[in-house]
Amino acid sequence: MFARVRWRLLGWTMLVLALILALVGTAVYVTLRQTLLAEVDRTLANRANEAATEIYHFGVARVDTANFSGGVFILDAGPDGVIIDNPQRVDLQSLPLPLPAGNAASAATITVHGERDRLLFLPLDAGRAGRRYLVTGESLEPEERALRSLLLVLIVSAGGGLLLSLAGASFLVSRSLIPIQRAYTRQREFSADAAHELRTPLTVLHAATDVLHQHRDEPLAANGQLFEDIQHEIVRMERLTNDMLTLARSDLDELELAVAEVDLAALAGKVVRQVMPLAHERDIDLALEPVKTAVTVEADPNRLQQVVLILLDNALKYTPAGGKVRVQVARHGNEASLAVTDTGEGISPEHLARLFDRFYRVDPARSRAQGGAGLGLAIARSLVTAHGGQLSLSSQPGTGTTALVRLPLTARTSAFARRFAGVTARLTRPLQR
Fold it and tell me: In order of start, what are the domains of the chain with their CATH numbers?
């Protein structure tokens, strides 16, 4: 599909460029041709006026042809177009001259023995003999030769330009399609992974409902385990759909953030207390390191709590019994930082770079067994980015992993988030009073 799109874009680009070059070349050629022809007409008009002046003021019947050098020739033609006088012996005797119908001077182009000549006809009053025409002419061969050279240059230049443009356009089209291909690939992977994740709970629900249908006459208490399985899978599907909805809104820059002043250390301490029973159950030492100074940020407390919960959940999942998980909050200039460090098995570099990809797991079997879908870190990064911050991971295999959140002390959220925050503030102001 992308190959067809690439060739179509390349074809349309080259077609448009070829049309532009053709129009520009045609305009240059026509303009120069008209300019050269106008210059020839001006030269012929000047020479015709000189000849007419000699005839009228000096009363000469024949013009001095010595004054008409440089390829210009003169003729004397009668009213019927027959040449009366040809002092420079130009071979035009057998050609009918296109004489003008009126009294004004006019120009015409004729072809003589394969050579184009430009003629200017100036009517003269010859008395009883009738009207005569002073014909001044010049060969257009030099101008035609210049125009042929120009046409050759334009064709060669256009051809070379199209070849160079083809290479450049091919490179640019290929580069421009890279992010589209990546986005398309990620979308396909996301759809396939989402379908795979939803298939498991749907299979369980289908099997459970089949069993219940077979034992529909039995009391509900006899199938309590099946109801628990159904409830568990429904909760799992609900969590998965909420996570995908959050990511979809993040992609559209439509995350709803109710921004307020948040004590980052207090929020981290609250989340640590919430997950402390899970840490004790797994025999993991979880603690929040003391904070020296107050760290207050402008953020959505619920979204920020979700980020900390995701990071702590990952740290507890991959830290063995007897390990440690530490949460540290600090302030660095105009930024606040929250670090979650564990003493787990660590992550190899080839996996570390892809941990923020959606549905990506270092150990898929273990992650599914623990109920993970591989969306936690992707959601956490989306939420942190929506606050104008950054989320990064660093790890050493066999030593542990550190997740670092950096947030601005003042809110730098999207325009939608600021509007939502303003609406929330107006709605909650009466309640505060």
Answer: 2-149 (3.30.450), 256-432 (3.30.565.10)
